[in-house]
Amino acid sequence: MHITQLNRECLLHLFSFLDKNSRKNLAKTCHKLLEVFQDPLLWSLLNFHSPVELKKDNFLLGPALKHLSICWYSETVKVCNTEDWMKNSFQKDFCKRHENTVSDFLLDVCNRCPNLLSLTLSGCGHVTDNCILQLLKNCPNLKSLKLENCVRITDHTLKAVTLHGASLQTLHVDFCRNVTQAGLDRVREKCPSVMLRAERSGNMIPDSKPGKKLMLEKASRKLVQI
């Protein structure tokens, strides 16, 4: 029995076990399998492990998407999450090449995936408050928002949660150093039903703190003297 003799339900089930590249390669073999690949029911869950994957033509983005995860675990994440004034010219050039990749993708999600239920971002150092604001506005059913090591996320995102996160049940802002304790307290006050977790965030030194560079330099000199 040839694979194309299976009914659509069976083919969708078979495709569900494959990764994005395997699905794309299989879809190239015949028109029937291409139709299965393009079925929105196949794309309710998307996981990405690098910003580069967001540019590949091996997935379908649409209203069927319910769960999205972009988790980048790599040595280069450390570069992107380093403060700009600490980066050398090579590191700045490296970051500039993909600075808008995740943000542009998320804005596309805003326009095409109104039924999104959960979003997880880890290591996405270039994602801004505006991206999260637009997602909350355009995805009113969002129940889970988990952010980890996203250094450009600030209290503006927390404020957006209180204003537009009516459906939100879970909020994580772990290792987001520009989130403050005051911002976290505001979420707890205005959204008491939200399960909030902020590991290390409120206690980390924010980038925007006046004189931070000078303060760190002085602290470093003291350590050397000791």
Automatic annotation (TrEMBL):
Q: What is the official name of this protein in its record?
A: FXL22 protein
Report the gene name: Fbxl22
UniProt cross-references to InterPro entries, sorted A to Z? F-box-like_dom_sf, F-box_dom, Leu-rich_rpt_Cys-con_subtyp, LRR_dom_sf
The Gene Ontology biological process annotation of the record reads:
SCF-dependent proteasomal ubiquitin-dependent protein catabolic process
SMART domains documented for this protein? LRR_CC
CC annotations in GO? SCF ubiquitin ligase complex
Residues annotated as domain F-box: 9-46
Q: Which domain of life is it from?
A: Eukaryota
Source organism (scientific name) = Donacobius atricapilla
- Determine if Transcription regulation is one of this entry's keywords: no
Keywords, in A-Z order: Leucine-rich repeat, Ubl conjugation pathway
Pfam families, per this entry? F-box-like
